[in-house]
Specification:
The chain has about 70 residues and is mostly helical. The protein is built from 3 helices and no strands. α1 packs antiparallel against α2 (about 30-50).
Length: about 70
């Protein structure tokens, strides 16, 4: 993928959001925005992880805890 290219999930999420807003400007697009944010986060995480040396099991487990709601307690 080119440096500035967007991932397929991001493109698809943006497309769904744009289509829903275009065809129904008053529609609730909360879920579509949530999906887009998740797709953007996933793409960013993948980019960062791919740029690093392999992580140990302990490092992966520690990072995975950040994505769990109860980890913030």
């Amino acid at each position: 993928m080119a440096k500035n290219a967007i991932s397929k999930p991001v493109a698809e999420s943006r497309s769904r959001l744009g289509a829903k807003r275009r065809w129904n400007p008053d529609a609730d697009v909360t879920e579509e925005r949530r999906e887009l944010k998740a797709a953007l986060l996933e793409a960013h995480i993948k980019k960062v992880v791919d740029s690093l040396p392999p992580l140990s099991d302990e490092q992966r487990a520690k990072l995975a805890l950040l994505l769990r709601p109860e980890a913030g307690a």
